[in-house]
Dinitrogenase iron-molybdenum cofactor biosynthesis domain-containing protein
Amino acid sequence: MGGVGIQSGQIMADKGVETVLTGSCGPNAFQTLQAAGIKVITGASGTVQEAIDKYKSGELKAISQANAAAHSGMKRGK
């Protein structure tokens, strides 16, 4: 099994997700989402509603490659 990003990406693909709003996206998750045809939008922060509003207003844009290092979201016990 892969990392959480890969597993999450596969679950989203299985559920028919078309777009993901996130703060950042590592290479494995990005590759999984891209292969599934899921658009990745980064730069999201705040509440879910705030992120949706920013996306709808054009403040957040799709990415064409990962914008975070592998495992950068892992806190490793911190």
About this structure: The chain has a mean pLDDT of 83. The first strand starts at residue 19 and ends at 22. The beta strands are 19-22, 39-42, 61-62.
